[in-house]
């Protein structure tokens, strides 16, 4: 069977790379792994596609010490295999037994004994493997859910593992704790900083270097408690690929270059352009050897000939545009099948044929259809499919029967019009021919049922009210003593509103803001009472408004009547007396405005009125007909009444006085004749006529005065009524503002109560969040740590007992050694014992890996080599093999069997020593883990205690916040600054003060303040003067007291005879003048001397001042130099870090060379000592040959004594 061998591989995208030891780099992708030797530049390709090696290679991890690597398979439920290099021998298989998981996304070796792997979705667990045996020792579920993550393991102890989610930039750091066979991963720190981490690297001292997407570098020490920024990038824009960071020779190396060869384009040349034949934009392209396929959001697939793109072979639809169209399309040349994947997840296979020309299906929509159709449904998203179907059915039926419904409504309208005409004719008919209205009632039964139903409803309502009224009511006890009005007023004032000024309210319902308890129930009660009070205020104002509206209607009618009467009187005056008293009332607006008539603003149609579903159409029509008939009958009755009243009372009405005086007196016929022909009757008639004219003139004058007076009275009453109405309107407007203020006060009280409730809820939520999210997990974590502590302690005790047993066993081995050589003499046994204690010349091993020590112990017993051991262990095994070679200078009594027993016992002893060292390492790790676990328990307990104290403090603060509530008070409005712009009516209620007056008041205040400050300064100076005078007075009083003391002392002094004789002699010699002259000389000399001293001191003072200034300048210059020296020192220290490191390395290398030299000298001394011992042994053998050994015990004792 032929076999294919891979010669070379070129990877496109490299995601996993690892170092194997110090000289080899491994790169994995797909099925292959490339090994590159950095020294020889040799490349080696290994393929992993067999049953023995697994299916594919991913998640490559290299061992930090041994040339060994681990890879994961590329399949579901993969295995992790550990191989050696360069032999590619499998060491172990790591199999994860959990079900329903996809694979691994990252892996890394932790220290020298353990392997870490990170599973993918949905669990994202970190698994710890003992790679030597493939045993899963620990699992932990991480909180990062990125599909691409990386694990970084620290090179120092304790072992720390950094988990980095690349897309999100989140990072967790875990600590690997080992206690014998118990292995655990503890979350050491969790990144909560706002920076988005893109790369990380561990330093040689165990610190963690981080780099964000901008390029800033941060350093996290081993404890992980704080983060320092060691490098800051000037630019703040994130880099798209993300900077890469690695710790390099004790420093930091950051790569921020782009992987692209070039980023800019000089120019583009358009070679050809073709229409895509698609209806929407964002068209995707897929090609193969023969076809070019285009697809997109419109659901169309266009297939073109690759040789000629202008040739469209096929265009058809596979997915609907409303569901996102097509996501991917692939054509298969062998089966002529087109596979399309839609955005909705549908996978469609279409059979295509070889087309020579364009073939477009009829189902392909045009551009207008695609762009005009909506991708959203017109139905509510909350409706179910059955409800949508039923609604569509109703719409369809409504559309089908729309014409029939319109015809029925038209017939019904015609019937209604006919019925209305019949009723009108019936009303116009005579009383004999008139029919009762019940005749036109077409639905008597329905009306009777409706009336009966209404009666039943009214009866039920009456019974319900009677039941409620007949129940026992609880009456609150009343106070026996009369309450204080001031207390009641204070209670209303402290309620925080002015509602009590407008509506009467029970004082028991008024809540004092200071004395309230602030509970939630009381808050709810206050909100409900506030809404009720707001409603009452609105109802109260509505009543005032309706009263004023009716008052306005009355005033308008009264004004109209008065104006009509005034117009009538003025017309009478003008017609009868030619007096023009016309008054213009056009300035009065006696008509309702449109804004004052709501019924004219909104017009309500019949179909807009809510109709009870149970009412039938016939009942509604009957109601409408009744209303129309009633309205028309009332109109007809009113017109008929007026008409008949006028016909009946014509000629019978009372004659008015003004109508009589308007009539002229008939002129007598005699006045037409000659006065000389008048008779007595004519004279009497003329006299009566003249008296009648005088009476008529007086009556008319009286009527004129009456009209004038009435016009004046009506005009005054009209103006007074207008003024009074306007004043009432102003008062209503003020009441409206005050009532609105009261409503807003109630609203503000309710909003403040809601705010308090929100504050209460936030406090409770914060406490609950602390208890649930922090305290409960912390308590559980502490409990788990406490439970695990006993297991760790028992493991430590077991390890300590095992170490003690191995120590005792090692001590017994030397005692058993002598028993293995009973056939040899004591000197030979001593010689073998010296060979037994020999070890390889490498000295003590520095290996502390339990796995390597255990493997080396097995190799020592078996005599074989292992590929997983490091160079140090292999050299130790080689040294053991060299020690097993039998030397040539052994005594003849020691044969090969003795040497074989010696080598076997020595290897067993070395194996015990290695096991003891391994157990010691394991015990040290266990004790360190136990100590760290104990510290973790203490920290967790302190954290729990801190959280409990925080919760208690938060509860106390919440309770204090609830007690320390805000109090709302309504205060009298003070002075405010009014804007001069706007309507002048806005300034009606304002007292305008010029701004200059305000500035003058401010200046007066400033002047008064200055005067006050001056007075305060004078007061302070006066107080200082008084204190100085008091101090001076105290000093003089103290001086006086001192003088009194001196006087008292002098009075107590006794003058002897000798002193008296001396004074008398001094007086007789005239010493007074002489002493005065001498005193003047002494005084003048003293003044000269003091002046000289003062001059000298002044010159000295000037010199000192100059010296001080000079030294001050020198100090300033020295300080500048010191600062510059500090800056230079900082620069030099920064530059000298590398030199210090090199100097440290040279010192370490010299120290290592010295240690190696010392070891060589020690080894040479040991060899010389061994050679000396061999010579002594040879000397003893020669002595034994010269002097045979005595068999007697006494001789043996004598020999020992002589030897010692």
Automatic annotation (TrEMBL):
Main localisation, per the record? Answer: cytoplasm
Which Pfam family is an annotated match for this chain, by its short name?
Answer: CC_Cfap43
Stored SUPFAM superfamilies: WD40 repeat-like (SSF50978)
Can you say where in the cell this protein is located? Cytoplasm, Cytoskeleton, Cilium axoneme
Fetch the InterPro entries from UniProt: WD40/YVTN_repeat-like_dom_sf (IPR015943), WD40_repeat_dom_sf (IPR036322)
Entry-linked Gene3D superfamilies: YVTN repeat-like/Quinoprotein amine dehydrogenase (2.130.10.10)
UniProt keyword list = Cell projection, Cilium, Coiled coil, Cytoplasm, Cytoskeleton, Flagellum, Repeat, WD repeat
Q: Which family does it belong to?
A: Belongs to the CFAP43 family.
Q: What is this protein called?
A: Cilia- and flagella-associated protein 43
């Amino acid at each position: 069977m032929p076999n294919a061998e891979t010669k070379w591989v070129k990877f496109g995208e490299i995601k996993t790379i690892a170092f194997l030891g110090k000289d080899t780099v491994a790169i994995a992708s797909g099925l292959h792994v490339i090994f590159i030797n950095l020294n020889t530049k040799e490349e080696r390709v290994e393929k992993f596609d067999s049953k023995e090696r697994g299916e594919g290679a991913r998640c490559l991890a290299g061992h930090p010490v041994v040339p060994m690597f681990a890879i994961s398979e590329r399949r579901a439920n993969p295995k992790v295999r550990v191989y050696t290099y360069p032999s590619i021998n499998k060491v172990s298989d790591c199999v994860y037994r959990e079900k329903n998981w996809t694979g691994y996304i990252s892996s890394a070796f932790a220290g020298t004994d353990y392997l870490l792997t990170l599973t993918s979705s949905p669990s994202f667990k970190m698994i710890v493997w003992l790679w030597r045996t493939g045993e899963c020792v620990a699992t932990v579920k991480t909180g990062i859910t990125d599909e691409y993550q990386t694990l970084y393991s620290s090179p120092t102890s304790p072992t720390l593992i950094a988990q980095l989610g690349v897309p999100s930039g989140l990072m967790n750091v875990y600590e690997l704790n080992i206690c014998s066979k118990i292995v655990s991963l503890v979350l050491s720190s969790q990144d909560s900083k706002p920076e988005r981490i893109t790369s990380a690297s561990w330093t040689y001292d165990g610190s963690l270097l981080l780099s964000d997407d901008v390029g800033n570098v941060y350093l996290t020490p081993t404890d992980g408690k704080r983060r320092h920024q060691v490098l800051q990038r000037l630019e703040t824009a994130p880099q798209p690929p993300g900077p890469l960071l690695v710790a390099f020779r004790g420093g930091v190396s950051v790569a921020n270059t782009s992987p692209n060869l070039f980023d800019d384009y000089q120019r583009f040349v358009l070679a050809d352009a073709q229409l895509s034949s698609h209806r929407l934009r964002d068209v995707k392209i897929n090609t193969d050897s023969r076809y070019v396929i285009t697809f997109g959001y419109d659901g169309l697939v266009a297939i073109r000939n690759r040789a000629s793109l202008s040739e469209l072979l096929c265009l058809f639809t596979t997915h609907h545009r409303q569901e996102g169209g097509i996501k991917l399309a692939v054509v298969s040349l062998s089966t002529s099948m087109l596979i399309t994947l839609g955005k909705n997840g549908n996978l469609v296979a279409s059979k295509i044929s070889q087309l020579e020309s364009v073939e477009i299906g009829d189902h392909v929509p045009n551009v207008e259809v695609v762009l005009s159709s909506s991708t959203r449904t017109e139905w509510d998203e909350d409706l179910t499919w059955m409800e949508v179907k039923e609604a569509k059915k109703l719409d369809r039926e409504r559309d089908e029967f729309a014409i029939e419904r319109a015809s029925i409504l038209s017939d019904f309208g015609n019937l209604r019009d006919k019925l209305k005409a019949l009723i009108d004719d019936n009303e116009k008919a005579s009383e004999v021919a008139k029919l009762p209205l019940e005749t036109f009632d077409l639905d008597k039964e329905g009306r009777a049922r409706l009336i009966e139903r209404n009666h039943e409803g009214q009866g039920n309502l009456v019974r319900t009210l009677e039941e409620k009224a007949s129940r026992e009511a609880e009456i609150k006890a009343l106070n026996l003593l009369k309450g204080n009005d001031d207390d009641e007023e204070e209670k209303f004032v402290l309620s925080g509103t002015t509602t009590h000024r407008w509506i009467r309210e029970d004082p028991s319902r008024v809540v004092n803001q200071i004395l309230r308890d602030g509970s939630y129930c009381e808050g709810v009660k206050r909100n409900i009472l506030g809404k009720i009070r707001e409603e009452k205020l609105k109802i109260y104002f509505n009543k005032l408004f309706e009263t004023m509206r009716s008052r306005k209607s009355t005033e308008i009618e009264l004004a109209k009547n008065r104006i009509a009467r005034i117009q009538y009187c003025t017309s009478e005056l003008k017609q009868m007396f030619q007096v023009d008293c016309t008054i213009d009332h056009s300035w009065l607006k006696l008509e309702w405005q449109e804004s004052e008539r709501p019924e004219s603003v909104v017009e309500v149609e019949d179909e807009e009125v809510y109709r009870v579903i149970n009412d039938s159409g016939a009942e509604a029509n009957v109601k409408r007909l009744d209303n129309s008939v009633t309205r028309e009958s009332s109109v007809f009755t009113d017109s008929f009444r007026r008409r008949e009243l006028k016909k009946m009372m014509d000629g019978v009405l009372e004659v008015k006085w003004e109508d009589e005086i308007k009539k002229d007196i008939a002129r007598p016929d005699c006045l037409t004749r000659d006065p000389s022909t008048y008779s007595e009757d004519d004279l009497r008639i003329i006299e009566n006529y003249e008296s009648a004219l005088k009476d008529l003139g007086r009556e008319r004058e009286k009527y004129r005065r009456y009209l004038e007076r009435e016009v004046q009275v009506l005009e005054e009453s009209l103006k007074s009524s207008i003024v009074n109405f306007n004043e009432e309107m102003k008062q209503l407007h003020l009441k409206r503002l005050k009532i609105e203020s009261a409503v807003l006060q109630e609203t503000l009280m309710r909003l403040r109560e809601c705010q308090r409730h929100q504050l209460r809820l936030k406090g409770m939520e914060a406490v609950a969040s602390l208890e649930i999210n922090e305290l409960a997990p912390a308590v559980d974590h502490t409990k788990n740590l406490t439970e695990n502590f006993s297991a760790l302690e028992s493991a430590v005790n077991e390890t300590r007992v095992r170490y003690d047993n191995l120590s005792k066993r090692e001590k017994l081995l030397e005692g058993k050694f002598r028993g293995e050589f009973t056939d040899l003499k004591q000197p030979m046994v001593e010689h073998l014992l010296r060979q037994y204690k020999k070890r390889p010349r490498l000295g003590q091993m520095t290996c502390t890996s339990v796995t390597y020590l255990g493997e080396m112990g097995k190799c020592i017993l078996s005599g074989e080599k292992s590929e997983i051991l490091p160079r140090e262990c292999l050299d130790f095994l080689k040294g053991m093999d060299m020690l097993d070679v039998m030397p040539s200078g052994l005594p003849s009594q020691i044969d090969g069997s003795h040497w074989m027993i010696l080598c076997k016992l020595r290897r067993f002893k070395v194996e015990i020593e290695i096991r003891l060292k391994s157990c010691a390492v394991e015990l040290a790790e266990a004790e360190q883990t136990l100590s760290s676990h104990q510290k973790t328990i203490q920290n967790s307990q302190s954290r729990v205690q801190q959280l409990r104290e925080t919760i208690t403090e938060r509860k106390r603060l919440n309770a204090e916040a609830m007690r320390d509530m805000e109090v709302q008070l309504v205060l009298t409005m003070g002075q405010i600054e009014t804007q001069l712009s706007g309507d002048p009516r806005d300034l009606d209620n304002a007292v305008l003060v010029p701004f200059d007056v305000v500035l003058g008041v401010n200046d007066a205040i400033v002047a008064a303040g200055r005067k006050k400050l001056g007075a305060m300064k004078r007061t302070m100076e006066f107080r200082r003067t008084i204190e100085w005078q008091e101090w001076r007075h105290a000093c003089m009083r103290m001086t006086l007291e001192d003088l009194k003391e001196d006087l008292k002392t002098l009075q107590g002094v006794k003058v002897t005879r000798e002193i008296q004789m001396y004074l008398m002699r001094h007086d007789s010699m005239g010493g007074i003048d002489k002493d005065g002259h001498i005193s003047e000389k002494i005084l003048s000399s003293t003044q000269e001397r003091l002046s000289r001293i003062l001059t000298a001191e002044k010159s000295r003072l000037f010199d000192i001042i100059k010296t001080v200034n000079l030294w001050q300048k020198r100090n300033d210059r020295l300080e500048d130099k010191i600062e510059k020296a500090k800056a230079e020192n900082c620069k030099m220290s920064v530059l000298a870090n590398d030199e210090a490191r090199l100097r440290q390395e040279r010192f370490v290398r010299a120290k290592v060379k010295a240690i190696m030299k010392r070891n060589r000298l020690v080894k040479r001394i040991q060899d010389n000592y061994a050679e000396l011992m061999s010579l002594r042994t040879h000397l003893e053998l020669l002595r034994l040959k010269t002097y045979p050994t005595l068999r007697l015990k006494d001789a043996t004792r004598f020999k020992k004594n002589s030897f010692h």
